[in-house]
Design brief:
About 45% of the residues lie in helices and about 15% in strands. It has about 230 residues and is of the alpha/beta class. A 6-stranded parallel β-sheet has the order 2-1-3-4-5-6, sandwiched between helices.
Length: about 230
């Protein structure tokens, strides 16, 4: 049997934007819009009645905004009928849906607030629709995602002196900072004057120490923990 599609709830107050999101998402065979809301309050009410894997949430909602809505979503118990077995979309340990935050603004303060509210992904409305689809799929399996237009300057801007509490070595911290700045393995190797294979070893150690599934998730976790 084919796998069930990822169930998506849209919370967006602008009808034109909501229509475009619905069309783009429903065009994909592995994604399905199962509900739509025009406000955080309406979205929270829908979540008590429909099974949802991922919420695409506008940060600038009327009434309670996207940040507060995300916090309240994180406080919800299981979605109705939500599977708790691992390996299925939306099967977070507490059963809450994942959150993809959507915004028209490329503002560092908003991104940091969204991440601290528990959002798994952050996308610009002006970005290529393929990036939003990628964010939904990443969030559904528990990965973190940041729009490439903002990831490097948001994650790379965080610098703290609390290295003593970090599980990373100074060299691993250097590598992670370059990852946050958007550099690939070859660029990191040139910047640090080390081999690509050494960079790969450092990246693997970083992922293990931070319990991250990929480079972006490692950078987001380091941001949240103040390790960069």
């Amino acid at each position: 049997m084919p796998e069930a599609p990822i169930r998506v709830l849209l919370i967006e107050d602008h009808a034109f934007t909501r229509d475009g999101l619905r069309v783009a998402i429903n065009f994909e065979p592995d994604l399905q819009v199962v509900g739509e809301a025009r406000s955080g309050e309406e979205g929270l009410e829908l979540l008590t009645r429909i099974q949802t894997d991922v919420v695409v949430l506008d940060i600038g909602l009327p009434g309670i905004d996207g940040i507060e809505t995300a916090i309240r979503i994180r406080a919800l118990p299981h979605s109705p009928g939500q599977p708790s077995a691992a390996g299925q979309p939306g099967s977070a340990s507490l059963g809450q849906p994942r959150i993809v935050m959507l915004t028209a603004h490329n503002l560092q303060a908003e991104v940091l607030a969204a991440m601290s509210s528990g959002a798994n992904a952050y996308c610009l409305k002006s970005a290529d629709p393929e990036l939003l689809l990628a964010a939904i799929r990443a969030a559904a399996v528990g990965s973190a995602y940041l729009d490439p237009q903002i990831a490097h300057h948001v994650l790379g801007a965080i610098r703290t002196p609390e290295a003593a509490s970090s599980p990373l070595t100074p060299r691993e911290t250097e590598v992670l900072r370059l990852i946050a700045d958007g550099q690939g393995n070859k660029e990191i190797a040139r910047t640090l004057n080390i081999s690509v294979s050494t960079v790969k070893f450092h990246v693997q150690d970083i992922l293990e120490k931070l319990s991250a599934s990929d480079r972006t998730q490692a950078a987001v976790k380091a941001l949240r923990q103040g390790l960069l």
